[in-house]
Amino acid sequence: MSTTAAIESREYACRKGVLTPGIMFRAKGGPYYVLADGRRVGLKEKGPFRFHRFCVAGDRRWIEAFSRDGFCVLNVGRSYPSRVVPGLVNWPYRITAILGGRTMKRDEVQVGKVYTAKVTDKLVPVRIEAESRHGGWDATNLATGKKVRIKSPQRLRGEAKAGGAKPGGKATSPPKAAAKGKSAPKGTTEAKPKKTATRAKQGEPKAKKPSGLDAAARVLAESGEPMGVKQIVEIAAQKGYWKSPGGKTPHATVYSAILRELQVKGKKARFRKIERGKFAFNPAAADGGE
């Protein structure tokens, strides 16, 4: 690592989203060792990982996290050869998936309760039946009714919300739509297909829709005051600068995009981070970053 004092952050923005303390994620890459015959031996840490913090020191960038084997350090900056071990290359990790909220601790798990668990790469509701003599807990997958074993509390994501699935049965799902060409049941009305919008006149260029990031920069530039992302999104919607594409957390999308621009453009970014979750417009961006 660099001798420069490290700058620590409780957040890390990547293409998959924003990592905060306790969030579980997967990553590919990692260091490798080059043998005398040229072959490479991978020395990467095994996931999944639980995010702790993000650090920057000079030209070094790394994530401090926890895996099944304990504390680990994941290089997410550039690749560089080890100064201590000849032949060792510190190849960076790349975040491939964000798995969800924080994992549970062993003393938080109670027999008889229903939790959301990671089973065969899917999040499903499970009911804890008893402690397993092989370690972990014996449970029932409420989505399939099958018996499963939860090997560690890291597979649990907290108590499941009510109504996710019927105990001992399959998860409830909305009725399937009527097959194409078949008439709707009596007492119901068929939804008429919406008429497609007429095409724009030939020769007229389509107007480019402003992004949430551009709208956020415009709101901050006009205001001149620091704001939280939720407030920025609300003002952008009120003024008609940006229409959210949908979803329950449009502010999270904008928040992730702002952090990504700060990491990529640095001083030339249109935003300045005032404090966690609060940003202001960067006047230097309007001057070309000078």
Q: How many strands?
A: 20
Global mean pLDDT: 79
The name of the CATH topology of the largest domain is PH-domain like
Q: For the report, how would you describe the main beta sheet?
A: 6 strands, antiparallel
Binned, the helix content reads 10-25%
Unreliably modeled segments: 164-181
Shape: flat
Roughly how many Å is the radius of gyration? 25 Å
SS class: alpha+beta
Summarize the structure.
The chain is an alpha+beta fold. It contains four helices and 20 strands. Helix content is about 15%, strand content about 35%.
Structure characteristics:
single chain, 290 residues, alpha+beta, PH-domain like, SH3 type barrels, 3 domains, 6-stranded antiparallel beta sheet, 5-stranded antiparallel beta sheet, 4 helices, 20 strands, 14% helix
Descriptive report:
There is one protein chain. With 290 residues, the chain is of the alpha+beta class. The chain is 14% helix and 33% strand. Helix 1 crosses helix 2. The protein folds into three domains: 94 residues, Roll (PH-domain like), CATH 2.30.29; 54 residues, SH3 type barrels; 75 residues. The strands form five sheets. Strands 1, 4, 7, 8, 9 and 12 form a six-stranded antiparallel β-sheet that branches.
